[in-house]
## 1
Amino acid sequence: MRSAFDIIGPIMIGPSSSHTAGAVRLGLMARAILAEEVKSADIKLHGSFAQTYKGHGTDRALIAGIMGFKPDDERIRDALQLATKNNIEYNFTKVNLEDAHPNTAIINLTGVSGRTVSLQGASIGGGNILVSHVNDFEVNLSGKYPSLIVVHRDRPGVINGVTAALALYNINIAYMKVSRKERGAQALMNIEVDNPVPDEAIGVCSTLSGVEKVLRIDAI
């Protein structure tokens, strides 16, 4: 069954749910994964995003999300000027990607501490998004649910430990994907859950052998 949100679309600043609302949510997701204030953003645009980003305000929407603005925030219209005022550097370039959705962006962020993150995601219609890569790991993040990103070593028992910790706090897993660069090397779990993950569960996951980092992301 389709929800009213799917039919009517999101509450947003226009002109386009795909080019504006979805772009804001991609920026919000990149900011959430960086987990600190943004110093600079290098953004690569593919397909329709690349062709119409200025006219449809996709550039302003992405920068607005990176600054933490929601899709209905009236400041989206002035996002580029506000970024400059707040000493956030940004750059847009066009790229051609194979087998990518036409509304795809690659967002490379650097935070105030020097931390970096790279995210590839698409605005797939109606303000919905799908993030497919984080730091060269394959993921599947919609932003519709609270999520965890767990960076860990690829070794037996780590996945079981994380899922058991979530079960201990009655957290139901809605979706889970695990990817690795090579056998025994660094790996990444992205987990979407039905209810917010408490600090206590994050703490348990963080202390598991083989786990390097646990990042909690609220629904956006």
## 2
Amino acid sequence: MALTFNSLPDLYAHDFDTVIDVRSPAEFAEDHLPGAISLPVLDNDERARVGTIYVQQSPFLARKLGAALVFRNAANHIENSLSHHEGGWKPLVYCWRGGQRSGSFTWMLQQIGWRAEVVEGGYRTYRRLVKRYLYDEPLPHRLYALDGYTGTAKTELLTLLKAQGVQVLDLEGLANHRGSLLGEMPGGQPSQKAFESALACALCNLDPSRPVVVEAESSKIGTLILPPSVWSALRNASRILVRASIAARSDYLVSAYEDVLADTERLKDRLSPLRFHRGHDVVDGWIKLIEAGDKRALTSALMQQHYDPAYTKSSRTRVSNVIASIDAASLDAVGLSDAAEQIKAVLDQL
């Protein structure tokens, strides 16, 4: 009998030893339940082949071939990937809709004696729960936005706050992007669905009765869109403003964006589209600084001529209030530690 889950917290609180995704590798790569392992009973080519036969020849022939492939692949997983499990092992299995792929694999595991169960509705049920949580219902959390000009080391401050026991939500970490024009990270960004899965899981692991600190963001981080419930909560979150001098911010950016600043040709390509917004003379000035290798002058110019004006413009639309302003004398280890302590003191009074 398949198991029914009515909410994300209910699903995340399962007591199974292992969650197994038996969908194809391509399906798994796009998105999957957090913590699930991939044991496909049909690989990408096999799934396409069975689907083609189903449409072009007959459902019977497709099911016959599919059964042979499913049991053959399942036997391989049992003999290799799962051979180390003892008799009391308890796995939770799902496929796309809780149908033949997960049902067949679960049946085999049960025949061995393992306490396997299948997710009712499969991945589609899980995805509906994620959508309801992030799109249809207001977040139960109290968000406090860490705000400030580009280069005020907000991401590092989140890390320090977390180490001090503060609840934080690292949106840029989940999106694998630093949230700016030059914010691309190695490995690229996850799919929108995978981002939402990670985001929903992170939120469900936070205590709604305690404050949650999040970096102030726009509605998009790189190519990923913040779901409505998160975006609404972030827009209305009370803000803690972090301030630092241009010099301190420039020093920080030179260090934090070392990989971006080192790739001069790619950096030029990324800045060229800003000619439309900032004018040719301004962008030409940036290009000269890149070619001269003057990273501090470049970051300073980018802040004063692009990032700061953009921040000032966007801040006019914010409806939430600033509950504290933190002035960081520097953004080195000592300065950031002091700023984090000041922020925590503010949160402790809430």
## 3
Amino acid sequence: MKSYADETAYDDWSLVVPLKPLARAKSRLAPAVGGSLRRLLALAFAEDTVAAVLACPAVRDVAVVTDDPAAAGALAALGARIVPDAPAAGLNGALAHGARAVRAGRPRARVAALNADLPALRPAELARVLSVAGQFPRAFLADAAEIGTTFLSAGPGAELEPAFGGASRRRHLSSGAVEIRLAGVDSVRRDVDTGEDLAAALALGVGPRTAARWVRAG
């Protein structure tokens, strides 16, 4: 008899990445970098995240849920599919909407939600997370602080049921999702909300767009 993992052992993941309008994105970063640079960095984070996801061999495609025209143009140029945030129901509403958009074309797609603020993301580390996630109907990865969540997956026949925001690790555990515990996937866990987070991501090694933006900012 085939196991669940046998039935999903294909490199066909669709990732859903949500992005607020840049005017409102990364508000907690403003005290450290200022308003103008905050907006530019928010876009650079998303560009580096999406580029790394598309470079991951386990990923088939990326759906970015956003209503920001500048971000939509930049991320579409990288190869992402843009899904307008029609529900306008917040982060989790956007993620559920993106998952539905993916499965409208591929009903049994393996879907994962991923934060847009992972500028140090490494494709190989994401591939390791996806490999483990594929063994379970639903799985998630906690952020570096082990309070929030940066990644949540749903296999064929399972709903994503996103509960991101704040102490989402506890909520995802309570919902029955399996927590992925892997060493050496720091880049998938290192989201950036504050100046301290940004310093940690820079130390880890950010992608080229974030690095260039940071250098230009002096």
